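Second opinion, please. Please look over this fold, written as tokens:

===
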Amino acid sequence: MVALAAPRTAFADEKDPKTEPTAATAPPATVEPPAEVWDIHDVTESPDKKYYFAGLRYRGNVIPAALVRIFVDGGQTIYTSMVGGEFEIRKRGFSIIPALTFHEVGTGDLLFKQNSSADIPGNYSLVNSGMKILYASVDLLWSSKVHRNVDVEYGLGAGLGALFGSLEVNWVKEGTGAGQLTGENGKTYIPCQTTEAVGTGCNKADHQNSSSDKVGGYREKSWFSGGSKPVIWPWITPQLGLRIKPIKNFVGRLGIGWSLTGFWFGLSGSYGLEQKPKP
């Protein structure tokens, strides 16, 4: 007997359309965004992003002798130092930099004479500053790029300082000995230790409008005690400088400026808080 093969239909080799995924029903492919490349030497700053830096600063402050002589006869160039911490907030080439700065304004013994006054001992005084200033300030700086890693900066700093420490103001008389100072007239002067006869320079009568005997290392009183020593000091300074950014996480600055305490030049270094993106 011959076996008969089952008839083959037209759909025998076709798959069930109900179980075959189509382009319309297949799940969409997941496309991962390209990972951000972290290049420590790429110092480009996005205009839509804020950047933060924290660091330290040093400023050398110079009061030229020529400036001192505008107010008194005598004196010399005075150099003092300022150190502090700063925090930079930067966006679109503009930096806001709050800072807390300590300024040491101490000097040695200096001999001053009242401006354009007679050359007599009563118009001379010894001054020795042990003053210090603590400033709270902010710098507002705009920048223009001159190189991939360098910007020229220009702007203004402003703040207020609290003064503390001693200010010695002592009368002098002609003579030689301990603490001897030489005036521009070639004469030598020594500090008055006690009040002496009129005409020596060690007496109230020898000085205009003096209410205290400034002898024996006299310390000037503050404004709060009726004296002439200030307790606050303004900080206002136009400034110009360079902002140098060799890598993403470091910024250095060189700057110059002018304030009520003289000319200054400064440098600073700050660590950038920008973080490497996580995958």
In short: Residues 1-6 have pLDDT under 50 and may be disordered. The CA atoms of residues 16 and 22 lie 12 Å apart. The domain at 51-272 is CATH 2.40.160.20 (Porin). The radius of gyration is 37 Å.
